[in-house]
Design brief:
By secondary structure, the chain is α+β, with helices and mostly antiparallel strands. It has one domain: Pnp Oxidase, Chain A, CATH 2.30.110. The protein has five helices and seven strands; from the N terminus they run H-E-E-E-E-H-E-E-H-H-H-E. It has a seven-stranded antiparallel sheet with strand order 2-1-5-6-7-4-3. Helix 3 packs antiparallel against helix 4. The longest helix has 15 residues, at 85-99. 25% of the residues are buried.
């Protein structure tokens, strides 16, 4: 399995937003949408602000593949569902730390149960 380089982790992990284009079942990508991304160690994570109602998330969860762009990095990825509560606690903290300047209006929904249930780990594809 491929892994992120330290440069990719740094550039994507510090990017304000990530553009994600989930791949549909027929192999075509959806139009890219901007979302928040956080880093936990050597891993990158995303969540749906709208929870399971997010259109991009429904496509991503169905196919588990997407193309991302952030921090000058363009990459095809596999999307793995993350259900570990300890990992999700760290991701909550990462969202709070990275995006605190946006205030509770945006951060609280990203760490609420609805969004937390949509946590996806980004795995680089070779």
């Amino acid at each position: 399995m491929a892994s992120w380089t330290s440069e990719e982790l740094a550039r994507i992990g510090t990017a304000e937003e990530l553009e994600i284009a989930p791949v549909r079942d027929d192999g075509t990508p959806r139009a890219p949408v901007p979302i928040w991304v956080v880093r936990d160690g050597d891993d990158l994570y995303i969540r749906s602000y709208r929870g399971t109602d997010g259109a991009w998330y429904r496509t991503a969860r169905a196919g588990h593949r997407a193309h991302i762009a952030a921090g000058g990095i363009d990459k095809d990825v596999t999307l793995a569902e993350e259900n570990d509560s300890g990992v999700n606690d760290r991701i909550d903290e990462a969202y709070r730390a990275k995006y605190h300047r946006y205030g509770s209006t945006y951060v609280i929904p990203m760490v609420a149960a609805q969004a937390r249930a949509t946590t996806l780990k980004l795995l680089p594809r070779p």
